[in-house]
Design brief:
This protein is of the alpha+beta class. It contains 17 helices and 20 strands.
Amino acid sequence: MVQYSAQEKEVIKKFTTIQKRLKRHWCNISKLTSAPQTVIVVPSLTLDSKELNKIKGIVHYEERFLFMLMLLRQPNCEVIFVTSQPIHPYIIDYYLQNLPGIPYSHAKKRLKLFTTYDASHIPLTQKLLERPRLIKRIRSEVKDYKSAHISTFVTTPLERELSVKLNIALYGTDPELNYLGTKSGSRKIFKKAGVKYPDGVEDIHKKDELVRAILKTFKENPHARKLLVKLNNSFSGEGNAFVSRPKDCGLSLKSVERCLQKIRFLAKDETLDSYLRSMREMGGIVEEYVESRKVLSPSVQLRVTPFGQVELLSTHDQILGGKGSQEYLGCTFPAKARYRDRIQSDAYKIGELLAKKGVVGRFSVDFIVLTEKSGIEHIFAIEINLRKGGTTHPFLMLDFLTNGSYDPKSGDYVTKSGHSKFYISSDNIQNEDYKGILPDDLFEISAFENIYYSNISETGVVFHLIGALSEFGKVGITCIGNSMDQAEQLFDKTVTILDKEALKNKKDKEKNLMPFLKKTVNIRKMKN
């Protein structure tokens, strides 16, 4: 049981009162409207900092939320966007120029950008709370706090405190319910909802608990050659690890302890000591790693309204890579038709249970689909992400660009023009030779190669994570087509174009560097 100070209790009390405004304001949040409103976007990745630091260019992940600028297509909507570091003006222009039916100048007047000028790895929300004058300036930009809300990536006690400081409702789940979205909490919800999930053990904090959980799971699953260990609040698969079954010497506490010394981590530079420290702090699980001829990982996105209604929003097939295919690389929309109804049905059961517990806002449920040689498919629920995630920004970008709708029965997204849309999206288009490509270079390349998203055809490429390109050689893309084949062709074409440009840049760099290297060699010869 969490013990709160008197001050924390007062914050929780005020937050509960403020959140009641969401019901009155819901019609403006849930759909495009002409009613006056203000949306304060705080794209803080308020998750475990150690886990986040494992992700290349993590500070630029705040830019994934720039799809929220599409809200400015509503003529009476004002957007306040807060970031750790300033965003390149060309990137802001890029999004605003994609707005359908709204003059660029009109939208720009209704956008206010604020930054903390702090690139450290602490959460953006914490940076804001440490700058009361900045909070005051943000608050002064809100004309009517009753018709305003805060949009965040995740809700934690920090976001709750910010909501109280601003006196503005937070669109998201009460942080008191966050356990439901952990790996351990997810397994308990699956059990109550009657949804199939892998065998295993949850709520592990200590090394001896981990050893016993591994031993128990191996004993109960004699055909399992290895198990997955997961940290409760890990992100993008970075908190996962593999433990192999003891060989020859049989199953015992001692043999499992020896195997634990050979645990294989997905994250680079992780050690057993550092991993166990993280497990003590946040907890974790052990679960069966079911090997199959073919493994797919679909995801269902839902939301619960402030009135407790569960809505199915979309389905995706996740693209996984890295060790053991545990790292999230991207997604395709929609998920495959042959299992779409089944995962939506299971996700809806989970959503109803979460709604009864008081969850509000967007969340997703991840699954795995295992295929036997006979073709029979087995579906297991894996985890609940009680927050926005990697599938949120591409779907909402499509939604805001086209103002269409998702049909859960057909599984299609249909635009106002009556066309079904498909896309492939990734946050992980990486190449060391992309380094040095500036935002304006990227836009110029896109224009010359004719891959820009077009509001006329409602197809093309939308870029994100643009700020990470020059420094980290990393960018995100969402390729929208009228068929999955078209989306995939556009994806392959875009990566080919970027690789070609990178190769050209590399040759130019080497050419420019050659005279300097020759000069350096000559100087060394003279010294010798």
